[in-house]
Amino acid sequence: MAMCPICNNFQTINVRCPECGRAVQDQGRVSDFFDDYSPYMEVDELKLEDGYPTDFKESQCPHVFYCDACHQEVLYFIGEWA
Prior knowledge:
Mean pLDDT: 94
Helix content: under 10%
Largest sheet: 3 strands, antiparallel
Strand order of the largest sheet: 1-2-3
Distance between the termini: 7 Å
Number of helices: 1
Structural class: mainly beta
Low-confidence stretches: none
């Protein structure tokens, strides 16, 4: 099972907003926003149903980033460690 270096606080990442170029804030995994119980479910199981067909196969963790300046959400795929 691969692990996300961002979710596990092993690494930080600086992502810029494509609209205004300012730094965006990591809001967590996309799957955490599905429903009240999704943060407690198995990550790999959620990847099979999250709507991104290659994130499980390519060991990627989709994160939502938010720009406070222009209120844009940015989806960024984080490469997981084996």
